Amino acid sequence: NIDFHGDNFDLEIEKLDKTKPVVVYCRSGKRSASCATKMLEKGFVKIYDLDGGITKWMSEGYDVIIE
C-alpha cells in the first residue's frame, strides 16, 4: 500500500519487483492512472489499473474485503 502523493513514493516502488504484476487503485481512478504511467516510466512491465477506482467497483456490487 503505497501513497502516490507520499514523499517516499519513488523510493517505495523501487523496492518492488518490476517483473511481477502490480495492481493499482484509488478512490476514483485518476491517481491510480497517474501512478500506472509513472510506474511504466520506471520500468514496470505489467500494471493493472482498476478503471473507475474502488468507488466504481463498489457501485457495481463487487465486494471489498479488508483484512
Concise description?
This protein is mostly helical and 67 residues long.
Description:
The structure is a single chain. The longest helix is centred in the middle third of the chain and has 12 residues, at 30-41. Strands 1-2 form a two-stranded parallel ribbon. The chain has helices spanning 9-14, 30-41, 53-59, and strands at 22-24, 47-49. It is globular. Helix 2 (30-41) links the parallel strand 1 (22-24) and strand 2. It starts with 8 loop residues before the first helix and ends in an 8-residue tail after the last helix. The protein has 67 residues and is mainly alpha-helical. The protein has three helices and two strands; from the N terminus they run αβαβα. 37% of the residues lie in helices and 9% in strands.
Element-level helix/strand string: HEHEH
**Average pLDDT taken over every residue:** 95
Query: Shape, please?
Result: globular
The largest β sheet comes out as: 2 strands, parallel
Q: Which bin fits the share of residues in helices?
A: 25-40%
Number of DSSP-assigned strands:
2
Which features would summarize this protein structure in a list?
2 strands; two-stranded parallel ribbon; globular; mainly alpha; 67 residues
